[in-house]
Each structure stands twice: as C-alpha cells, then as structure tokens.
Design goal:
The protein is built from 4 helices and 12 strands, in the order αββαβαβαββββββββ. The protein is of the alpha/beta class. The chain has a single domain, classed as Purple Acid Phosphatase, chain A, domain 2 (4-Layer Sandwich), CATH 3.60.21. α3 links the parallel β3 and β4. The chain is globular, with a radius of gyration of 28 Å. The chain starts with 20 loop residues before the first helix and ends with a strand.
Amino acid sequence: MDIKIYDEVQEEVPVNDGFNFKKLFIVILCVIIFIISVIVYCRYKATSGLKINEIKITSSNLPNSFHGVKVVQFSDIYFGNTVDIKYLESIVSSINSLKPDVVIFTGDFTNKDLDSETKSKVIEILSSINSTIGKYSIKGDIDDDGLYNELFSSSGFICLDNITTNIYYNDNDFITIGNEDVSSDLFNILLIHEPDLFDNYNSSFELVLAGHSLNGQINIPVIKRLFLDDGAHKYYKSHYLVNGSNLYISSGIGTTDFKFRFNNKPSINLYRLTKY
C-alpha cells in the first residue's frame, strides 16, 4: 500500500486592515499642522503689510482746480492690538509715498490707555503725515473723546465730528467735507465711521467714506463675512452705490481684540478726483 506523506501547510490568518492606526495618525497630524498653519497665517502674516486700493472718482461737479487731486483714506488702526509704533511709522511712510493732497482718517484709532511717552510718539508720527491741502478726521465708536482729540488735533488734523467745512484749493472754488447734510449742487465728501448710518442722511453725496466694518475681519468665500459689528450689518463690503452716492468702506489696518484676519489684508484707499 502506497503511503503519501503531505507537508502540513499552515494558512496565514489575514490581518484585518479595516482600521489602520498608522494612517489615522498621519491624517490627524496633517489636520493639526494645517490648523496651526492657518492660525499662524491669520494672526501674523494676514495682519501685516499694507495694500493700497486706487479708486478713480469722476464727477462733473468737481471744480476745475480739484481735477487730479489725490485723497488718501486710512481707518481703524486699533493701536495696541496688531499695530504698534513701528507699524504705525510704516503706515505713515506708505501714505506719504502717495504724495496726497488730502488725508482722511475715518475713526477707531485705539481703545487702549496710552502712557505719555507713547502719546508723544504717536503725535510725532501722525504729525509727519504730509498733505498739500489738509488732514481731516472723525471719531470712531471706540475712540475716547479726550485722547482722540489730543492725538489728532495735536497732529495737525481738523476734527470734523458733527461739522462740515469747505476745502479751497488754488482759487475760489471749493468742495465740502464733513458729516452733515449739504447742498447736492456741490462736490461733497461725507465722512461717517459706521456705514449703516448713511441711511440717516437725506442728501446725495458724490463720495461717502466710512470705516468700522473692516470689510469683515474673517472673509471666507461664499460664507458671509464674520465679526461684523453693529453699524455695519447692511453696508460692510468695500463699495456700494446708494441712491447715486458712492459709498466706500475701508477694510482698515488693525484688528479688534480678536487679532486675526483672513482673506482681508490691511489697506488704505487712494481716491483720484477727476472731472472726466
């Protein structure tokens, strides 16, 4: 009788790879690195530097002598959050490089208490802003009346809170600037800090300059902009045409106490006034 001997073959038990801890760890690590990178970018990179937005404003109401005049608007510094002395010096340097005729600040310089040394340095820096016609400012909702007036009046700014004045240049023709209703026959610039307040005005303005909204500190595409304060729920983007008036809202330079920006670089606006 033939006897066949077979080698015993042991089958390998398949390992259940339905749950791979190594792959899960790599995925979690990548997510953590991504989140940290976004946070670091939003806190430091996105809150630094300065973008210059150049805008042409054309109106037949503009006096001939004002054709080609350059108006620079800066807003919402929030000094002491992401803007310090060094950054403020850089901002002023950028403003002066544009050789502005008119410089306008539309509110919210700081909600911090400044010591005497810091106040003196801030006044020195703001005083170094050059303009051929004048410098004008309005107070923001975070600005303390006393500190705001001290900083800007001492720096050569004309404070236009609840005031409208005429600007003359080269001849007897003038334009108006301030935050009161005016004659619609003139070229007029309205300054308001909170853009939603524009609905309270009856006049038609050639140019309306506002701040406050920061255009939404966190701007996620498709999703509504985040961190919008009261006074900037209706109007918060960079530009609106409202009943014939051009409303421009600065994205500002600093941040609120939430010291982050996303898809929304700090900026200043340069307006070129032309008749055609």
